[in-house]
Amino acid sequence: MKREHVKNLPKIELHCHLDGSIRPETLRKIAAQQGIALPADNAQLKELLVAPEDCRNLNDYLERFDLVLACLQTEDALKAAAMDVISQAAAENIRYIEVRFAPSLHTRQGLSLPKIITAVLAGLHQGEQQYGVKSNALLCGMRHEEIHEIERIVQLANTFKEAGVAGFDLAGNEADFPPYTFEETLGLVKQLNIPLTLHAGECGCGKNVADAVMLGATRIGHGIALKDTSEHFALIKEKDVLLEICPTSNFQTKTVTTLADYPFRLFQEAGLKVCINTDNRTVSNTTLTDEFMKLHEWYGITYADMEQLLHNAVNGAFISEKEKQGLHQLLEEAYQKVDE
């Protein structure tokens, strides 16, 4: 596969975190408007924002969010951040993207949760008008927070359903807060008929993936640890669950340490559905083009394989059947023309 082709072909992305995907130059502008001092040297700034290829662990990776979050505490900053992600998506012909964020992380300067969500949605909407990339937001509850705080986010996902919030997610410390901690909360998600994707199996517990599915998730963020619990494959297949895998990030966070251990082929051969994502464009120093090129390098995937992975993403997207049909058609027409 040729990088230029891969970059120009239409793509879909379902797992992209707002706070981990802001370009350093955009963060500079956002910080300057608020009088926040950043290192003058670009290389130094990048070091604070981009995780090393060889992180010690997930926490080492997550440290890269500290500076960004300090800057994302105003409506203007959130709007600019959302627009920035859409402009990056447009640069590599992503035609539909779901951008996730945790509203509770942006309240330090007193912004209300509804204002935070409104600001991000305004940025996504403006990005769509300017760049032609269709997007929706996913709201994340943070696992370490009080249950009533997480349920407030669920209620807001319901309130903003018609305004561009497509679903709900739980992010954060999976090891100490496994899925069944949130059984009642996820019951509320189901009751309100909010589409559900959950971070699960990013650290070493495949059972978390099965539990997340039993609690109503139709998509799983990462799901890599499932590789060690093949007894759950049948459930994942039966429920037609989509695994949102993020190759670069999965290696950085030490979910796996060797290519032989990475379950991309294993999942495919088992008939499990996966789609490919960046997770955090800046923190992982990647693009969706990079992710597909890695799979080509590692496994020799073809344009036809790439197209199938993107159809998987469309099928799992939290959009209407009509929108899905449009995206499937767009992919079919574009990939038919690719000269293998």
Task: Give the secondary structure arrangement, pairings included.
Elements: H1 3-8, E1 11-17, H2 24-34, H3 42-49, H4 58-62, H5 66-71, H6 75-91, E2 94-101, H7 113-131, E3 134-142, H8 147-159, E4 165-171, H9 183-191, E5 197-200, H10 206-214, E6 219-222, H11 233-238, E7 242-245, H12 247-252, H13 264-269, E8 273-276, H14 288-299, H15 303-316, H16 321-336
Parallel strand pairs: 1-2, 2-3, 3-4, 5-6, 6-7, 7-8
Helix pairs in contact: 2-6, 6-7, 15-16
Radius of gyration: 19 Å
What is the first-to-last residue Cα distance?
A: 8 Å
Structural class, from helix and strand content? alpha/beta
CATH architecture type: Alpha-Beta Barrel
Our estimate of the beta-strand percent is 5-15%
Q: What's the CATH topology label? A: TIM Barrel
Mean of residue pLDDT values? 96
**H/E series:** HEHHHHHEHEHEHEHEHEHHEHHH
Number of domains: 1
Shape by Cα distribution: globular
What oligomeric state do the depicted chains represent? single chain
Question: Uncertain regions: pLDDT < 50 for 5+ in a row?
Answer: none
**Neighbour order of strands in the largest sheet:** 1-2-3-4
Question: How is this structure best described in words?
Answer:
There is one protein chain. With 340 residues, the chain is an alpha/beta fold. Helix 2 (24-34) packs antiparallel against helix 6 (75-91), helix 6 (75-91) packs parallel to helix 7 (113-131) and helix 15 runs antiparallel to helix 16. The model has no long low-confidence stretch (mean pLDDT 96). The strands form two sheets. Strands 1-2-3-4 form a four-stranded parallel sheet, with helices on both faces. It has helices spanning 3-8, 24-34, 42-49, 58-62, 66-71, 75-91, 113-131, 147-159, 183-191, 206-214, 233-238, 247-252, 264-269, 288-299, 303-316, 321-336, and strands at residues 11-17, 94-101, 134-142, 165-171, 197-200, 219-222, 242-245, 273-276. It is built from 16 helices and eight strands. The protein has one domain (3-317): Metal-dependent hydrolases (TIM Barrel), CATH 3.20.20. It is 48% helix and 14% strand.
